[in-house]
TrEMBL record:
<dbReference type="InterPro" id="IPR003719">
    <property type="entry name" value="Phenazine_PhzF-like"/>
</dbReference>
<comment type="similarity">
    <text>Belongs to the PhzF family.</text>
</comment>
<protein>
    <submittedName>
        <fullName>Uncharacterized isomerase BH0283</fullName>
    </submittedName>
</protein>
<dbReference type="GO" id="GO:0016853">
    <property type="term" value="F:isomerase activity"/>
</dbReference>
<dbReference type="Pfam" id="PF02567">
    <property type="entry name" value="PhzC-PhzF"/>
</dbReference>
<keyword id="KW-0413">Isomerase</keyword>
<feature type="active site">
    <location>
        <position position="49"/>
    </location>
</feature>
């Protein structure tokens, strides 16, 4: 029996300009596919994330609910922000839901996404000035769990410093349960100018390295970051929503606030608006997106 063709969209997330932010492939499944196929398609797209949406028709809630899974080119992951934003944006703009709220059933529990009034992003960042403005004037707000930071007492500080090309390290934390390293540098300028040694990062403890630094007030941002996950087949992730579930609690303690405008200083660049809900240990991530491609998988 022939397989049902799979409709897909490629969406740039956490940006309002095409070919910026972080691209994700969003695949709409009408029938089950095996793990080998899911991983093979993700390897074929070779983006930081390919995700799969399956409508859950027997949901007891009036809110549309979809099963959502995320795959890098080499493995499935438990949490991904930009592909969740891309999924919600696709469902909203393609007319696949009649609601301003969507629920996703994921390996990290039930996550929600909703249409959100625009936030005003800084306009003086060179990386985001190129490209056409997108056609849909709304943001997507994601409701994600916080990712706790714990103390890092390893003897591997010298190895981490070597991997970051001798950058001056101010602080190191370990995230749980994802086991990434959160490395804080002296400033956002140090983050932007960092020239990491990817092979050395691959040898470091933990799954990946999140680098961050405070931004000057005149920039319009509170902090900047970059993220490196070579063990997942992603040397540098352009914009990492899930990393900000750890960054928001960290910078809340340092800056004494719960609302942030964050910039991920990769070559593509991306902007996130964040709110830390300390009482419920949730992070609200807001961002925009642009659909740049759509097509059909015939296999």
């Amino acid at each position: 029996m022939a397989r049902t063709p799979v409709k897909y969209y490629v969406v740039d997330a956490f940006t309002e300009s095409a070919f910026k932010g972080n691209p994700a492939a969003v695949c709409l499944l009408e029938e089950d596919r095996d793990e080998q196929w899911l991983q093979a398609v993700a390897a074929e797209f070779n983006l930081s994330e390919t995700c799969y949406l399956t409508r859950i028709s027997d949901s007891s809630s009036h809110t549309p609910r979809f099963r959502l899974r995320w795959f890098t080119p080499v493995s499935e992951v438990k949490l991904c922000g930009h592909a969740t934003l891309a999924s919600a944006y696709t469902l909203f703009t393609a007319g696949l839901v009649n609601s301003n709220i969507i629920e996703f059933d994921t390996l990290s529990g039930i996550l929600t996404a909703k249409k959100d009034p625009d936030f005003k992003a800084p306009t003086d960042v060179p990386q985001i000035q190129n490209g056409e403005e997108h056609q849909h004037c709304f943001s997507v707000e994601l409701d994600f769990p916080t990712v706790p930071n714990t103390e890092f007492n390893s003897t591997e500080v010298s190895a981490i410093s070597k991997a970051l090309n001798g950058a001056a390290i101010i602080d190191i934390k370990r995230t749980t349960p994802f086991d990434d390293l959160l490395v804080v540098l002296s400033s956002s300028k140090s983050v932007t100018e960092l020239q990491p040694q990817i092979d050395d990062i691959r040898k470091c403890t933990g799954e990946g390295i999140i680098v961050s630094g405070a931004a000057p007030p005149e920039s319009g941002f509170d902090f900047a970051s970059r993220c490196f996950f070579p063990k997942y087949g992603i040397d540098e992730d352009p914009v990492t929503g899930s990393a900000h579930c750890a960054l928001a609690p960290y910078w809340s303690q340092k800056l004494g606030k719960c609302d942030f405008i964050a910039y991920q200083a990769s070559a593509r660049g991306g902007i996130l608006s964040l709110h830390l809900d300390e009482r419920n240990q949730r992070v609200l991530l807001r961002g925009k997106a642009v659909t740049v491609m759509e097509g059909t998988l015939m296999v």
